[in-house]
Design brief:
Layout: H1 4-14, E1 29-32, E2 46-49, E3 55-56, H2 61-71, H3 78-90, H4 102-105, H5 113-120, H6 124-140, H7 151-160, H8 169-191, E4 196-204, E5 210-217, E6 223-230, H9 238-252, E7 257-262, H10 266-278, E8 283-286, H11 288-301, H12 303-321, H13 323-335, H14 353-363, H15 365-374, H16 381-387, H17 392-413, H18 420-435, H19 443-458, H20 462-470, H21 484-498, H22 503-517, H23 534-540, H24 547-557, H25 563-576
Parallel strand pairs: 4-7, 7-8
Antiparallel strand pairs: 1-2, 2-3, 4-5, 5-6
Helix pairs in contact: 2-3, 2-8, 3-8, 6-8, 9-10, 11-17, 11-19, 12-13, 12-14, 12-17, 13-15, 14-17, 17-18, 18-20, 20-21, 21-22, 23-24
Region (Disordered): 1-25
Keywords: Metal-binding, Nucleus, Transcription, Transcription regulation, Zinc, Zinc-finger
GO molecular function: DNA binding; zinc ion binding
């Protein structure tokens, strides 16, 4: 028999806990019971993600929503992620369980009646807009987040708008940045259209982390960072990278991609080919800037060039480190009105610095000779020996002549608007320049350079670039050999087959290519540089079953360089540097 005291205990245990019901986000998390022995008496439940098993000692709604929308390493179902991304973007969640309550952190202070009137002007919508603007300011201007708790910054904010509640640093670094990130992702998904390109590259951070950036580029040159992933714990095999690439492609939509662009690393090349096997309409493209940089590196590694670059580096290093020598050189530069600045360093990872280094030596040639004649006591024996070498400056000038077309090609092809046709033209210009190296003083070196160029040329999938050149309305088949037309048609047919074209449409495509080559209607419009773009010129050419237009727009939409990844890594390197975190 149960007495009245036991009945009371049973009814108490069955009674619902007081307070608000838990947010629906908890259905994706396992509850971790609170520690009743905790001295801080914080009896809030902990949480563990059901997908990736990450745990929190205290489950906060905002952090849990942000985790599912942005951070979960196991990627919850797309519908779950999309739902909470929208919730985070709209800010439609209860954030009262975060530690931003002024009641907890602010001591009581006698308020004035005017403060109440001024606070009435700041609605929830205004508070949200002010907070978003503040978040953008801190992130885009790279302002340290602790500034938000600086008393002078708080006073400044209150002077601008007394009713605005300045958020705490912990809220700025979590909830507010997560909300803004969700907004950016939502906007990015709206703007992504067809014919997008996925570029990727790897980088080792100053902390030794292996980071990979996945960058989406549209046909009009806009860039969107899809994700930055830490693969330090993973083996970077082609199969692993293929799976990671496919995750990105399928999340955005495989039908929206036309190419994957990366450098020459063998594992990445394998991954691109595996992805192209699964999605034949996505072409594996080799980064043209990396390819030309490899050519430059191969030339620099040749014995004759290596000796010259080594001597140039020694001269630059000496004048950079010697206070007296550097001052005299700067004085000579000013007095002789030498344009272009002083000596430039050669940095292996900076693609055009080999040319810049040799060019600076030639530019400062007279100044260096003046110092050698009049101030030789400032120079060490090694520098004196180099400057007195017979034909030293002539050899540097010859090497500069070789590197100039390579530098021009790299600069021209790093632009966001670069097309495959531009690559074709610059490769031809480089080939012509290297064949003309016989005019330099070192004939053996000229032959070695030509061999290096021929080797790199064979590694290139040249047919894509040849077809893109032909489909550029400014060039068409200008300068091409007679037998090249067949190669162009065969490449066009192979791509058309990958796009799902049948025999009838393939025959129509060949007929349209022939009419385009002959400038027959509707392909008889003149292409005016500076007025027309390749895209709008092709959109003017209208006819039924316009297969060649579809093919041309596809080729012009391919971005042949992932140099943007390098730029973002440079920014990230500065951001992660110790100087940034002081």
């Amino acid at each position: 028999m149960i007495d009245s005291e036991d009945e009371l205990l049973i009814s108490t245990s069955n009674r619902k806990r007081p307070g608000r019901p838990k947010n629906e986000v908890w259905q994706h998390f396992n509850t971790i019971p609170a520690d009743s022995t905790n001295e801080k008496k914080d009896l809030h439940s902990g949480a563990a993600c059901k997908f990736c098993k990450q745990k929190w000692s205290r489950g906060k709604t905002s952090e849990m929503i942000a985790h599912l929308a942005l951070q979960c390493s196991k990627l919850p179902p797309l519908e779950v992620r999309a739902l909470y991304l929208e919730i985070l973007n709209n800010g439609s969640f209860d954030d009262n369980d975060d530690d931003n309550s002024s009641k907890r952190s602010k001591p009581y202070k006698q308020s004035k009646i005017t403060n109440h009137v001024e606070r009435l002007t700041v609605t929830d919508d205004k508070q949200r807009r002010y907070s978003r603007a503040l978040t953008k300011f801190f992130v885009t201007c790279e302002v340290p987040l602790w500034i938000i708790e600086n008393p002078f910054f708080i006073d400044y904010s209150k002077e601008l708008c007394p009713g605005f509640q300045v958020p705490k640093r912990t809220i700025l670094s979590t909830t507010m940045i997560n909300v803004e990130t969700a907004t950016v992702i939502a906007e990015m998904k709206k703007k992504l259209s067809n014919e997008t390109n996925l570029t990727l590259d790897g980088w080792t951070s100053p902390a030794g982390q292996s980071l990979y950036i996945f960058l989406i580029m549209t046909s009009d040159g806009k860039e969107y960072i899809h994700s930055l992933k830490n693969f330090s714990k993973n083996s970077h095999t082609g199969e692993f990278l293929k799976n990671e690439i496919i995750k990105v492609i399928e999340e955005v939509g495989a039908e929206k991609f036309c190419s994957i662009v990366s450098d020459h690393a063998s594992n990445v090349v394998l991954a691109k080919n595996l992805v192209s096997t699964k999605y034949p309409h996505i072409f594996p493209i080799r980064c043209i800037a990396h390819h030309i940089n490899l050519l430059s590196s191969d030339i620099i590694k040749l014995n004759w060039a290596t000796n010259i670059i080594t001597c140039c580096k020694k001269i630059v290093t000496f004048f950079k480190q010697s206070h007296a020598g550097g001052a005299i050189l700067q004085q000579e530069i000013v007095e002789n009105m030498i344009k272009g600045g002083g000596l430039k360093k050669y940095v292996i990872t900076r693609w055009t610095t080999a040319y810049d280094c040799t060019d600076s030596i030639i530019r400062c040639k007279n100044a260096l000779k003046q110092i050698l004649e009049n101030e030789s006591q400032l120079l060490n024996l090694e520098i004196i020996s180099i400057l007195r070498k017979q034909n030293f400056f002539r050899n540097v000038k010859d090497l500069r002549t070789i590197l100039l077309p390579i530098k021009k090609a790299i600069i021209n092809l790093e632009h966001k608007s670069t097309t495959l046709a531009d690559c074709f033209i610059n490769l031809v210009i480089m080939a012509t320049a290297i064949k003309e190296l016989s005019q330099t003083s070192n004939q053996n070196f000229s032959k070695e350079c030509q061999n290096v160029f021929d080797k790199r040329w064979k590694e290139f999938n040249f047919d894509y670039y040849l077809l893109a050149y032909f489909l550029h309305p400014k060039y068409r088949d200008t300068g091409l050999q007679i037998n090249t037309f067949r190669i162009i048609c065969e490449k066009a047919l192979s791509i058309w087959k990958l796009l799902g074209g049948r025999e009838k449409s393939a025959n129509e495509l060949i007929a349209q290519i022939s009419n385009y080559s002959l400038k027959s209607k509707p392909y008889d419009f003149e292409f005016v540089t500076g007025i027309h773009t390749v895209k709008n010129w092709w959109l003017m050419c209208k006819q039924q079953n316009n297969h060649i237009q579809k093919l041309a727009l596809l080729m012009v939409s391919i971005v042949p360089s992932n140099a943007s990844c390098e730029r973002y890594f440079s920014i990230l390197g500065w951001y992660m540097n110790k100087r940034r975190t002081r």
